[in-house]
UniProtKB/TrEMBL annotation:
Enzyme Commission code(s) on record: 2.3.1.308
PROSITE patterns referenced in this protein's UniProt entry, alphabetically: GNAT (PS51186)
EC supergroup of this enzyme: transferase
Organism lineage string: Eukaryota, Metazoa, Chordata, Craniata, Vertebrata
Family matches, as Gene3D superfamilies: 3.40.630.30
Protein name listed in UniProt: Alpha/beta-tubulin-N-acetyltransferase 9
Keyword Transferase appears in the UniProt entry: yes
Limits of the N-acetyltransferase domain: 55-220
Alphabetic keyword roster: Acyltransferase, Transferase
GO molecular function: tubulin N-terminal-methionine acetyltransferase activity
Catalytic activity entry: N-terminal L-methionyl-[tubulin] + acetyl-CoA = N-terminal N(alpha)-acetyl-L-methionyl-[tubulin] + CoA + H(+)
Family: Belongs to the acetyltransferase family. GNAT subfamily.
Length: 247
């Protein structure tokens, strides 16, 4: 089942089913080889922490699973992500799968203010959502599909999702060699569509079957310069399973 990306605001954007991904099957030996080379880069974030003004992005580890599991008990989130409820054991297995898969790049989104203001605070206590990139086209390893979710209701509408998307776009360009990005959003989700349009995405397709629109951003020289300006404050730090400390 494919998610429709329908939401009540800008906090849940363009989700695929996070428990059973759908991937476009490509043909041709050269396309598969190119995808394999690009996919090898997708796991680079396992040792990376990205520090922004509003959010901190950290790799999805077993420490985050209990809080994530609680989020996904929500019928609202299950609907928005087209997901079925999992047991805690299944959620741990899913986390391992997502971390090991070469075609996914996932960061957990932390509230930067809370993370920095409370010395010794666990990452789990600062979690607000996640942001993801997927390689979905075997023929084009420079194309990534982006998703973001702000699961904590109290943290929505504060720009955390916007900064998380900008940071992930920058990471995709500078570390994963991506030059094009797509977001698939429910047709009725005008706030989400407007947010991506403000980030220079343009609508390129509409699916009546999935009731969604596809928006795309291509990294021209001017767009690349703009993105780097928007994320010039972001710091990249080493991460080792929660060992990174707040500044």
């Amino acid at each position: 089942m494919r998610a429709l990306g329908i939401s009540l605001g800008t906090w849940c954007l363009g989700f695929r089913n996070r428990h059973s991904a759908e991937w476009t099957e490509g043909t041709g030996k050269n396309g598969a080889q190119a995808w394999s080379l690009g996919a090898a880069n997708m796991r680079l974030n396992q040792n990376t922490l990205l520090l922004g003004k509003k959010v901190v992005l950290v790799p999805y580890t077993s420490e985050h699973v209990p809080r994530y599991h609680e989020w996904m008990k929500s019928e609202e989130l299950q609907h928005l992500t087209a997901s079925e409820p999992l047991s805690l054991e299944q959620e741990y297995a899913m986390q391992r799968s997502w971390r090991e898969d070469a075609d996914k790049c996932t960061f957990i989104v932390l509230d930067a203010e809370k993370w920095q203001a409370q010395p010794g605070a666990t990452e789990e206590s600062c979690m607000v959502g996640d942001v993801n990139l997927f390689l979905t086209d075997l023929e084009d390893p420079t194309l990534g599909e982006i998703e973001v979710m702000i699961a904590e209701p109290s943290c929505r509408g504060k720009g955390l999702g916007t900064e998380a998307v900008l940071m992930m776009l920058s990471y995709g360009v500078t570390r994963l060699d991506l030059t094009k990005f797509e977001a698939k959003i429910g047709q009725g989700n005008e706030p989400s569509i407007r947010m991506f349009q403000k980030l220079h995405f343009e609508q390129v397709a509409v699916s009546s079957v999935f009731q969604e629109v596809t928006l795309r951003l291509t990294m021209s020289e001017s767009e690349h310069h703009w993105l780097l300006e928007q994320t010039s404050h972001v710091e990249e730090k080493p991460y080792r399973d929660g060992s990174a400390e707040p500044c």
